[in-house]
Amino acid sequence: KPMVGAYVELIRNTPFIVQLFFIFFGLPAAGVRLSAEWASVIAMVVNLGAYSAEIVRAGIVATPRGQIEAAWSLALTPMQTFTRVVLPPALQRVWPAWDILRNLLLAARWTVVLSLIAFVGGGLVGLALLVARTAPSRTLQQLVQAYVQLFQGTPLLMQLFLSYFGLALLGLETSAWTAAAVALTLYSSAFLTEIWHGCVKAIARGQWEAAQSLALNFREQLQYIILPQAARIAIPPTVGFLVQVVKGTALASVIGFIELTKAGTMITNATFRPFVVYSCVGLVYFALCYPISVYARSLESRLHVHSH
Questions:
Q1: Does residue 167 carry a pLDDT above 90?
Q2: Within 10 A of 138 (CB to CB), how many other CB atoms are there?
Q3: Residue 202 contacts by C-beta under 8 Å, 6 or more apart in sequence?
Q4: Alpha-carbon span 17 to 43, nearest angstrom
Q5: 186-220: string of b/e by CB count within 10 Å (b at 16+)?
Q6: Rg of the chain's alpha carbons, rounded to an integer?
Q7: Would you say 267 and 257 are in contact if contact means Cβ atoms under 8 Å apart?
Q8: Tens-place pLDDT, residues 114-153
Q9: How high is the pLDDT of residue 225?
Q10: pLDDT, average across residues 176-189
Q11: Which of 84, 86, 158, 167 has a Cα at 20 to 30 A from 191?
Q12: From CA 182, how far away is CA 7, in angstroms rounded?
């Protein structure tokens, strides 16, 4: 208790900018060096942690003594009493958005699953298209280029509508889940093909000629010489594109797929609290996308350093 109390009082009675400066400029003197991004995140977590602890403590103190005694009479342990009897109503009292955020986090599971399906499926399709686009056949190259231009030149929203409503007109009944997965997979494959094709084009022509001089066929040239070099260049933009896929899943809500955005709309209609709900929706999307963006920038920086 004294240590937690000291932590809360220290954070509450010092300016946030001083805490930020201490973490970013002061910790290096102790041998701990942090980037500006991580120093900012840690400072905000430490600062909000102190205020959140005090707010939750007020909710816990407001719990009637009779409820705690009733829990003890049922032979609950102190930990069970705290987690099952004291904490849930305390959180509801001090943070009405808790139930909203909890339900959004449950819906976010499907956003993550749909994103992974679209990214992995798009990667597999994109790799096959990349091989076709780099093949000596002019016809294959033109077909793949037309495919890429089709999906890059039309809105993802229209592709979702065609996947869900268009297939139904052809007699193919599809669920919102299947339609969203198919549309996002095709959308991802077109962009990943273009990203990877640019990385392959970045490989010096001499590498192809050297592979040919070793009597390697086209498949062996790609497998052993070109793709390993292109993969090193492609990793940062590929990881960065995952952010676009995650954000693109929000459009799946228009065909009835219940992911994060759709769940936010449903909760708003039930609670009439759009500001709180959509703030939480944005927070969850940020929590999903920001680490990916930071990781992509880190990979890009490392690639730049190694290339020099």
A1: no
A2: 8
A3: 230, 233
A4: 9
A5: bbbbbbbbbbbbebbeebeeeebeebeeeebeeee
A6: 26
A7: no
A8: 999 999 999 999 999 999 998 888 999 999 999 999 999 9
A9: 86
A10: 94
A11: 167
A12: 51
pLDDT tens by residue, 6-39: 888 888 888 888 888 888 888 888 888 888 878 8
Cα distances from 192 to residues 147, 153, 181, 219, 222, in angstroms, run 12, 15, 16, 20, 17
| pLDDT beyond 70 at 254 | yes
pLDDT of residue 94 exceeding 70: no
Return the amino acid letter for 279: S
Tokens of 303: 């690639």
Residue 219 near residue 130, CB atoms below 8 Å: no
Instruction: Give the tokens for residue 161.
Output: 């509508």
Dig out the tokens for 68 from the structure: 């705690």
Half-sphere exposure of 148 (CA within 13 A, CB side): 23
The two tokens of residue 164 are 């869900």
Q: Is the pLDDT of residue 261 over 80?
A: yes
pTM: 0.71
